[in-house]
Amino acid sequence: MSNNLIVVNKITKVYDEDIFFRRGTNYHVLNKIDFLLQKGDFVSIMGPSGSGKSTFLNCISGLDRPTTGKVLLFGKNLTEINDEEIAYLRSHEIGFVFQNHNLIENLTIYDNIATPLILNEENNDLINQRVHEYSKKLGIEHLLGKKPLECSGGERQRAAIARAIVSQPQVLICDEPTGNLDSKNSHEVLKIFKELNNEGTSIVLVTHDSAIASYANKFLYLRDGQMQTQLIKNKTDQKSFYEEINRITEKDILFSMFSNIEGKSNIEDDIKRDDSQISNESIDNDVEVINVDNSKNKTRENVYVVFKDKKLTLEQRKCRLLNFEDKYLEYESVTHHNVRIYYKDIKNIKLFLSATYRQLGFFSEYMYYVNIDIILENDQYELRLENIDDVSPLFDMFIKENINIDDPADIIGIYANHKVDLDRHRYIQRNYKKFCKMYGFK
Ligand code: ADP
Ligand code: MG
Q1: Using CA positions, which residue lies closest to atom 23 of ligand 1?
Q2: Rounded alpha-carbon distances, angstroms, from residue 37 to 86, 101, 209
Q3: All CATH 3.40.50.300 domain ranges in the chain, comma separated
C-alpha cells in the first residue's frame, strides 16, 4: 500500500447552495484546498473559529462530502464508493476524537471502549484483550466498570481516545480533543497522541491552542477557506515550533478581538499599526473590522435560534444552536463550553443589522444578519443570528421577559411589518446605508 493515506485535491465546500430558484447564501467555507496525509504524519490545524476546520475534517474523513474536488481515502475515491464502503473505512481505518467525548452514558467505560469492536463483529476474546490493552495504555484500566458520569473530564476523554484507537486505525482524526480539558490534562492527552504517532498512527488534529498544535510535525493554518500557511517542524524543537506557530496565529487573535464581519471603523488604522509590530507581513486588505465601541474583545458568535416546537433539519442541527428555556437561554460557545444566560440577569439587549458581501458565481449580493448584544451586569455576549428569516418569536420572548431592548433601526418593527423574507430583505437592502449611518458604520 502506498504511503499516501489521505489525498485531497482542490476540495470546495459550499453550504446553502444557491440552486435555481432557491435563494441560498452560497456560503463558501472551503475553497480549493489541497492536502496530503502520509503514513507517520502528525498534522495540526488551526484557524479562526468558523473558518471551516471541522468542515474540513468531516470532508477528508468521509463524514461529509465536499461540494467539488476529490478525496482519496486509502486509495479509494470518496465520490466513487458507496456509503457502505465509506462506513467500512471509517470504522476500520479511522478513529475519531471530538471535543465532547461522545461516550454513551448508560454504558460502562468497558462497553464504550468495546463498541467499535462489537460493531465490527470481532470475537469476544479479541475484544476483551484489546479493551484491556488500550485502557491500560491510557491509564484507565481501573475505571472499566464505571459509567462516564462517574469519571472526571480527563478520564472520559482518555476513554474516548481508547475507543478511537481500539480498532487500531491507521488514521486518528481529532477535532479539538482538548477543548474541554484543563491545560494539564490537555498535555497528558497530547503526550498520548505523540506516543501513538511514534508507534505509527497518523494524526490530523484541529485545535485552538498553539501549545497543543506544537506537538505535531506539520502545522497548517486555515483562513478564508484556504490553507494559508504551512510549517514543517523538521528538527526544530517543540518550543521553537510553538513560537513559530504563535507568530502566525497571534495576528488573527488580534483580529478575533473584533468581529471579522460588517462595516469598517476608524480604529482600523490602529489595529494595522499594532499588527505590524507582531509581524512584518502585510495585512490582508479584506479584513474588515467592526466598530468596537461596546464590544468587550469577544468574537461575535454565529448562532441558530431554536424554537421549542420547530423541527430542525439535519443541516440546521450542525449549526451552533441557541436554545430557549423557561428561565434562560443557552448555547455552546465556539470554545465548546455551554453558555447559559438567565433572563433575569440581562440588563439590556441591543439589536443591529450587519451585512456581508457574497459572490454568487456571476452575481453578487449582500447578505443581512441580525446581530444581538446581550448585556449583563459584568458581561456581554455578542451573537449573530443565522436564521434571520424567522426570529420574530425571539423578539417576542424578550418582550415577554420585560427585557430592555435597544433597537435604533427598529428591526423588530421591520420583522413585524414585512412578514415575507424577500420583502424584508428588499426593505433592508434599500435602507442599509441609512442603518449603517445610524450605527456609526462607514
Ligand atoms: P470551525 O470548525 O473552524 O469553527 P466549521 O467547519 O464548524 O468551523 O464551520 C465553518 C462555517 O460554516 C461556520 O461559519 C459555520 O457556521 C458554517 N457551517 C457549518 N456547518 C454548516 C451547515 N451544515 N450549514 C450551513 N453552514 C454551516
Ligand atoms: Mg469546529
Answers
A1: 315
A2: 18, 24, 21
A3: 4-231
**Residue 284 CB coordination number (10 Å):** 11
- Where in the chain is CATH 2.30.29.30? 301-438
Top CATH class of 4-231 equals alpha beta
What is the C-alpha separation between 103 and 288, in angstroms, rounded?
40
Counting atoms of ligand 1 from 1, which one is nearest the CA of 318?
A: 23
HSE, CB side, 13 Å, CA atoms: give it for residue 196: 30
The predicted model gives 112-118 an average pLDDT of 94
Which H or E run contains 69?
Answer: strand 68-73
CATH class of 301-438: mainly beta
Instruction: Give the three-state DSSP class for 256.
Output: helix
List the one residue out of 13, 7, 17 whose CA is nearest residue 360. Answer: 17
Does residue 188 register a pLDDT over 90?
Answer: no
Residue 55 CA, ligand 1 centroid: distance in Å = 6
Predicted local distance difference test score (pLDDT) of residue 278: 26
Whether 80 has a pLDDT exceeding 60, the answer reads yes
Give the C-alpha distances (Å, rounded to integers) separating 247 from 45, 140, 253: 15, 37, 10
Looking at residue 266, its pLDDT comes to 34
DSSP one-letter code for 237: -
Mutate to test the pocket of ligand 1, among 16, 18, 31, 51 (most ligand atoms within 8 A of CB): 51
Q: Extract the C-alpha cell encoding 181.
A: 480539558
Q: Is the CB of 384 under 6 A from ligand 1?
A: no
- Per DSSP, what are the bridge partners of residue 226? 223
Q: Are strands 202-206 and 218-223 parallel, antiparallel or unpaired?
A: unpaired
Q: Which three-class secondary structure state does DSSP give residue 172?
A: strand
CA angle 96, 99, 105 (to 5 degrees): 85
- Sort strands 171-175 and 94-98 into parallel, antiparallel or unpaired: parallel
List 171's β-bridge partners, or say none. Answer: 94, 202
Residues whose beta carbons lie less than 5 angstroms from ion ligand 2: 54
Does 322 have pLDDT greater than 90? no
What value does the mean pLDDT of the chain take?
81
